[in-house]
Amino acid sequence: MKIYISASFAARERLRPMRDRLFSMGHDVTSSWLDEITPAENMDREVFEKKLAIKDLVEVSSADLLIQDTFTPSTTGDLYVEWGIGLGQFQRQQLWIVGPTLNVFHRLCDLQFQSWDELLEWVDPQVVYKAVKLEGSVAMAETEWLEREGNND
Length: 153
What we know:
Layout: E1 2-6, H1 12-24, E2 28-29, H2 45-62, E3 65-69, H3 78-88, E4 94-98, E5 111-113, H4 116-122, E6 127-134, E7 137-147
């Protein structure tokens, strides 16, 4: 599954091990901002920020699942924009929160976890996601998880 981790830039060092755990479970984590560096000396700051915005927009949009960590306060608000992009994916993308609900739009999440340990237990490698087909459209109102060895009908 393609996963985008959204959080405050200040949380990136704390979240790298979470990204690595998800990757070790076979998931593709598209959040390249976790390893972001400063702009080249000869690059204008505005150009650099536009490139970052486009890259993040593509990474968020390409994910099957957006996980937003709300433990570290944001100083820029970028993570809220990422959440909005995820909401705009409608039912093509799952939206999960790790941490407290911070605004009314967080109420639209598909799942909420109190800790990363709880989330990582939920995304155990023996569990797979199955979209439920309802009346000709894929509905993800209720996430259905099935054990790989179990009934996948």
